[in-house]
UniProtKB/TrEMBL annotation:
Residues 182-581 form the PDEase domain. Its EC number is 3.1.4.-. Keywords: cGMP, Hydrolase, Metal-binding. It is an enzyme of class 3 (hydrolase). Residues 495-514, 585-613 are annotated as: Disordered. PANTHER family: CYCLIC NUCLEOTIDE PHOSPHODIESTERASE (PTHR11347). This is Phosphodiesterase. It comes from Limulus polyphemus (Atlantic horseshoe crab). It comes from the Eukaryota. Residues 505-514, 585-603 have a biased composition (Basic and acidic residues). The gene is LOC106461691.
Length: 613
């Protein structure tokens, strides 16, 4: 598939670009940087660029020339006529973007009082709303380079004001440049069509309808879901992921999911698991427990966890002696391939969404992704649950993040029986068809049927009841217990230490603003999802984890745990189906038995008649 075929829609206003191209020729006629009105002209130019960026793209050469002109004007305006070496310097020594200026007295080697300057700027220009971290590192570097390039910039003697009104105006100009920077380097240029955006607003829901989104997105659901979530968590700007690189990577990933045309293990399943992981991060509060790198790794693991899935099980690869089984020595064959193939994509610089991670960040990122994806191997299911149970029973609040997030991804991977019936039933039909297709291959190869792969004998309803009872329900129960303990950990971290200042504790809740949730979710009722004749309500008097409908958050809030009701409902529905299937089977067996008896009687009669003759 060519990348252009799946490119995300961009709102490029060609008419406005032509206007900008024509205005580019006017740069030569702009007044000199030291001329009267140069500041107004530069500000007007920046506002014009911002206006056009709101409607589409602007040629990069126009942006570069305009920013260079504005920089020169700012530099000239802040340069005093005197040559004394006491300049006010915008430094880049720390993330707070400190502004260092000389004190009123002659310098004695001691640093200036930054708080005094900040107070002065607030009084002078009412900049109390300006936050130092509003400007990203790249813009900060640009400003620092611009204003410290000449060592002769200094204040006027005495109380005279510099030509530029104050350093505060330089900060304002920097924020304006930051807006332009964000327009260029963030997903604002990667616009998602409105009809798709409307559906993506429901991604905070437990039973998010991936089938509908896939339909309106023309089969490109994974790239839209992934782009939207990376943007919500601020990861595209945080890790400086180039827009075209992200787009190319997602196109290749989505293409890999369609390589074998699987009914179940495809891009829709990957999007479903990714959205479910988002639910755990957002609604269950896990994002407040993880670092930015860990949140990025968690979403990445969900996106690639079944990349290039062959539509067959690990057991099939081992029994058939496939090349993949030989390569990975019969151990977690598919899971190893998903990881290897996905990370191999990143070797191409045009696909490497991790290109701006530091070596340490990449090491932590890859380690967590590997742990999580390998944890989706069903052969390690019970060992994994036992490990997490052990972690939960310890009184200490220290929890292994890698093992915990591996369980989260594993539970999300098998979570469709815990979604509403309108989603679970289609998923079941798709999964069983994929199993049956494997059974057809096993028949052709002369291999014994794998469990649930014989389309002539498999009892679908019975298989789903067993899957819910022995796999999904216990897993989700343990996951709920794990989330409970994680919330206790978060609560302890956020709890103000005795004698600590409010400023110190204010940083504890910084992660609470990381998630850009689209709406508050209300799961008060699931009646609309119930099948005919079924209605289940949580028992308010029950204290057991399995029947609890809510999960406590470390911040005192409660979130709904809708998988409990969905599991109960779906199990009851399958039990009803199993009962009907048993009745039909008994009727068919009775008919076959009667037919066989009739055939035996006919055969006996024919034999007796021939003896008499």
């Amino acid at each position: 598939m060519h990348s252009s075929e799946g490119a995300l829609t961009r709102g490029v206003a060609h008419d406005k670009n032509r206007v900008m191209d024509r205005s580019d020729t006017k740069l030569e006629t702009l007044p000199g940087v030291d001329a009267t009105g140069a500041c107004d002209k530069a500000a007007s130019r920046l506002r014009e660029i911002l206006h056009h960026l709101q409607h589409g793209e602007v040629p990069i050469n126009v942006i570069q020339k305009s920013l260079q002109y504005a920089a020169s004007v700012l530099e000239t305006a802040t340069t005093s006529e005197s040559k004394k070496d006491h300049p006010g310097i915008l430094t880049n020594c720390n993330p707070s973007c400190s502004i260092v200026t000389p004190s009123k007295k002659r310098s004695t080697g001691q640093p200036s009082a930054i708080s005094d300057l900040t107070r002065q700027l607030v009084d002078e220009d009412d900049l109390s709303e300006v936050q130092p971290d509003a400007v990203p590192d790249e813009v900060r570097d640009w400003l620092a380079t611009t204003f410290t390039r000449h060592a002769t910039a200094q204040r006027r003697r005495g109380d005279d004001k510099p030509r530029f009104r104050s350093v505060a105006n330089a900060i304002r100009a920097g924020i304006m440049v930051d807006k332009i920077y964000r327009r260029i380097c963030t997903p604002a240029v990667m616009q998602i069509p409105n009809n798709i955006t409307k559906h993506l607003k429901n991604m905070d829901n437990w039973s998010f309808d991936v089938f509908s989104v896939n339909q309106v997105s023309s089969g490109q659901i994974l790239r839209y879901v992934t782009t939207d979530l990376l943007n919500r968590y601020g990861l595209i700007s945080k890790f400086k992921i180039p827009v075209t690189v992200l787009e190319n990577f997602l196109i290749h990933v989505e293409s890999g999911y369609g390589k074998y045309k699987n009914p179940y293990h495809n891009n829709i399943h990957a999007a479903d698991v990714t959205q479910t992981v988002h639910y755990m991060l957002c609604q269950a509060g896990l994002a407040n427990w993880l670092t930015d790198v860990e949140v990025f790794a968690t979403l990445f693991a969900a996106v690639i966890h079944d990349y290039e899935h062959t539509g067959t099980t690990n057991n099939f690869h081992v029994m058939s002696g496939s090349e993949m089984a030989l390569l990975y020595n019969d151990r977690a064959v598919l899971e190893n391939h998903h990881l290897s193939a996905a990370f191999r994509l990143l070797k191409d610089e045009n696909l490497n969404v991790l290109q701006n991670l530091s070596k340490e960040e990449y090491r932590d990122f890859r380690g967590l992704v590997v742990e999580m994806v390998l944890g989706t191997d069903m052969s390690s299911h019970f060992h994994h649950l036992k490990t997490i149970k052990t972690l939960i029973t310890h009184k200490e609040l220290n929890i292994d993040k890698a093992k915990s997030m591996a369980l989260v991804l594993h539970c999300c991977d098998i979570s469709h029986p815990s979604k509403e019936w309108r989603l679970h039933f289609p998923w079941t039909k798709l999964l069983m068809e994929e199993f049956f297709q494997q059974g057809d291959k096993e028949r052709e190869l002369g291999l014994p049927f794998s469990p649930l792969c014989d389309r002539n004998t498999t009892l679908v309803a019975e298989s789903q009841i067993g899957f819910i009872n022995f796999i999904v329900s216990p897993s989700m129960e343990i996951l709920g217990d794990l989330l409970d303990k994680i919330q206790l950990t978060i609560a302890q971290i956020n709890r103000p230490a005795e004698g600590s200042s409010s400023e110190e504790n204010g940083d504890k809740t910084e992660c609470n603003s990381r998630i850009k949730s689209t709406k508050d979710v209300n799961y008060a009722s699931l009646d609309t999802a119930n099948g005919p004749g079924f209605e289940y309500k949580a028992n308010p008097s029950s204290n057991s984890a399995s029947s609890s409908a809510t999960l406590g958050l470390g911040n005192g809030k409660k979130i709904q745990r809708p998988w409990v009701l969905c599991l109960e409902h779906n199990k009851a529905f399958w039990q009803e189906r199993a009962k009907k299937d048993a009745e039909i089977k008994a009727l068919e067996d009775g008919q076959r038995s009667s037919s066989k008896e009739h055939q035996d009687e006919t055969s006996h009669f024919s034999f007796s008649s021939s003896e008499k003759q």
